[in-house]
Predict the 3D structure of the following.
Amino acid sequence: MSENPLTPAPDAPATDGAPPAVAPDAGGSTVSGSASASRRGGPMFPDGTGPAADPAGSHHERRIRSFQPRRSRVSPSQADALRRLWPTWGLDIDGLSRIDLDAFFDGLPVVLEIGFGMGEATAQMAAADPATGILACDVHTPGQGNLLGLAERNGLTNVRVANGDAIILLREMLAPGSLAGLRVYFPDPWPKKRHHKRRLIQPEFLTLATTRLAPGALVHCATDWEPYAEQMLEVLSAEPTLENLHPSYAPRPDFRPLTRFEGQGLDKGHVVHDLLFRRRAV
């Protein structure tokens, strides 16, 4: 895999007229058996060899985010993968540089996956489709380390891991029309009504995200929470730049592996809904 190819961002944020939206925030983690400073929430990688606890820092505005930072233990193997592989395969979302995706992925078309958990499904999809690059974005440090370890063990050269706020990534670090697809699998449903504003799939989010999609790019969402599925269908259908590939919900596609969250939902008797939309030609 190549080194991180970043170019200076424009003086003004690359909003392209899109308003801010909700997105993941960055958080730190602690390593089992690490120093007391790490257990108190200090930086895991003060030497810069791994993901930053808050890569954007004060560069981003205060706004509602789609989930809270998760602090949990990182195993020794995950920490080792992060220290060794992050400088080449990882990316901190600081909002200060524009990513050259062609250089970062050796010319592959790139799909952005927002929220990948522990990365098992992401690794399976990368192995099944080596001609497509996956830019996997999350803030969960154990999952970041786990995915990097899976990529190394399975010889996957088409996976990169982005750490931080997905909105900053879309708005300020990705060029318009640069993505071949967008995947959002089993995002936090925020079931309480007063928390619905925290859900990721909102009109403002799609207004921004679709500007980064190339014509023909596939938007694929999945959830096991029925009310959120209904909201997803309504919001995606209302976005004028997208067209539904099915009359309503999509049959579960063979290319999406069973995720851990999906399995948990199925065990509880939840019904899983997939949604497949395509970016219209301009």
Summary: Confidence is low (pLDDT under 50) at residues 10-40. The first helix runs from residue 36 to 39.
